[in-house]
Amino acid sequence: xIADVLADAGARMDRAVEAAKEDxxxxxxxxxxxxxxxxxxxxxxxTPTPLAQLASIxxxxxxxxxxxxxxxxxxxxxEQAIRDIPNLGVNPTNDGNIVRVTMPxxxxxxxxxxxxxxxxxxxxxxxxxxxxxxxxxDDIDALKGEVGEDELSRGEKELDALTRxxxxxxxxxxxxxxxxLLEV
Length: 184
Hints:
Blueprint: H1 2-25, E1 41-44, E2 47-50, H2 51-54, E3 55-61, E4 64-69, H3 75-83, E5 93-94, E6 99-102, H4 108-142, H5 149-182
Antiparallel strand pairs: 1-2, 3-4, 4-6, 5-6
């Protein structure tokens, strides 16, 4: 029973770490990356639709992204959705067939802002992992009458080790992203 609780908590923590890494990928660094538009929703005929379902995104140059819509009628909506992305600071251009997004050079001040944003996202992910730990601990405590004290104690120690490993994984991903952001 304790093993089931730990397995469920581990799987949920793994998903939280992956979500944190995806979230870090949406913070821009010095070069253009199609993952920046991963969570962009376009108002397509009144329905919020992920950009990846409406267009292909190519990276022909280091600081340029080309967004080619599958449906040309969505061009204006795609352009507006990209313009509305917070913390990106880009002005997309539309030539009637594609949307060209040129990333401006990052200033030192902007890099530091992005590091702060990334740290906030990392802290949110760690809070989520700790929330998963808290629920798993409650589930283990609920088994008090069914299993012995030694098993409960061992289960809690394993849960703590699991939590520590996942928090360390988030910290490692955060450290890599910070190094990437501060690299000139």
